[in-house]
């Protein structure tokens, strides 16, 4: 049973690692470093490192169980414990510095808005986010003034001037075809009229609202992941104990 669990972990780790490598090598979210404020660090590498760590842990657990290798099992157990501790620390820090995280989320969304037309993957990500959360901009439609195509300045000659992307528009159940021009000139109208056609709430407040409404589900997922990690550590330690017990019995026979 332990060998099967370790093999499953290895297969999943390999799949994650190589799928991430393949995805990023093809340019998916290739411009993500340009919309983050991480001193030139490309977050894509973070995903690759996470995939690599999972691969190494899965490999150590698999080979350690198959070959009954104490060193690999200890390595698997210790590093799984470190990951659990880091996750716990991250959760505590996220709660303590929630205002800073909120500011970073605003910064991230606003940078996405500036680069909306620069990358098709980024554009699809923003549209999906605004449609799913039923929001527009970081804190409201006026955030789209940051984009050179949607701002209301006199120098803007774009047809999308004073508008918003179609993903900001409220959906009419009777319409089967998406009207990609529904947001044109909408911000030139009064606020009361805008509410009829577009979402006026920002994505940051909508995300906070969703998180509060689904706090039990989110907490359950994280607790489930933590329990699985603890279970893996316990299995590794149990197997280590069995191996050491067998070796000790062999010494006295």
Give a structural overview.
The longest helix is centred in the C-terminal third of the chain and has 37 residues, at 215-251. The two termini are 29 Å apart. This protein folds into 2 domains: 2-96 and 215-251, no CATH class; 100-208, Orthogonal Bundle (Cd81 Antigen, Extracellular Domain, Chain: A), CATH 1.10.1450. It has helices spanning 2-25, 43-67, 70-96, 98-114, 120-133, 191-197, 203-213, 215-251. It has 8 helices and no strands. The protein has 253 residues and is mostly helical.
Provide keyphrases for this structure.
mainly alpha; Cd81 Antigen, Extracellular Domain, Chain: A; elongated; disordered N terminus; Tetraspanin/Peripherin; cell membrane; disulfide bond; Tetraspanin_animals; membrane
Structural class: mainly alpha
Global geometry? elongated
First-last Cα distance: 29 Å
Percentage of residues assigned to helices: 55-70%
Determine Rg (CA atoms, Å).
25 Å
Protein name: Tetraspanin
Family: Belongs to the tetraspanin (TM4SF) family.
Subcellular location: Cell membrane; Membrane
Signal peptide: 1-23
In short:
The protein has 253 residues and is mainly α. The protein has eight helices and no strands. The chain has two domains: 2-96 and 215-251, no CATH class; 100-208, Tetraspanin (Cd81 Antigen, Extracellular Domain, Chain: A, Orthogonal Bundle), CATH 1.10.1450.
């Amino acid at each position: 049973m332990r060998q099967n669990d370790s093999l499953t972990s290895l297969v999943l780790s390999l799949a994650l690692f190589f799928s991430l490598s393949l995805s990023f090598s093809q340019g998916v979210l290739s411009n993500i470093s340009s919309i983050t404020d991480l001193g030139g660090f490309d977050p894509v590498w973070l995903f690759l490192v996470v995939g690599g760590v999972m691969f190494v842990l899965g490999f150590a657990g698999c080979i350690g169980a198959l070959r009954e290798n104490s060193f690999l099992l200890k390595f698997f157990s210790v590093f799984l414990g470190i990951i659990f501790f880091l996750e716990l620390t991250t959760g505590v820090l996220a709660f303590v510095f929630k205002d800073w995280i909120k500011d970073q989320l605003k910064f991230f969304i606003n940078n996405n808005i500036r680069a909306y037309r620069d990358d098709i993957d980024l554009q699809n990500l923003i549209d999906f986010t605004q449609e799913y959360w039923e929001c527009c901009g970081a804190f409201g439609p006026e955030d789209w003034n940051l984009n050179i195509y949607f701002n209301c300045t006199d120098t803007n000659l774009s047809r999308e001037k004073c508008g918003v992307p179609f993903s900001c528009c409220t959906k009419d159940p009777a319409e089967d075809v998406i009207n990609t021009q529904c947001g044109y000139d909408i911000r030139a109208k009064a606020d009361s009229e805008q509410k009829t056609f577009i979402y006026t709430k920002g994505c940051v407040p909508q995300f906070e609202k969703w998180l509060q409404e689904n706090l039990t589900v989110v907490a359950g997922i994280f607790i489930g992941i933590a329990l699985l990690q603890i279970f893996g550590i316990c299995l590794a330690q149990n197997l280590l104990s069995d191996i050491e017990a067998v070796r000790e019995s062999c010494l006295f026979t």
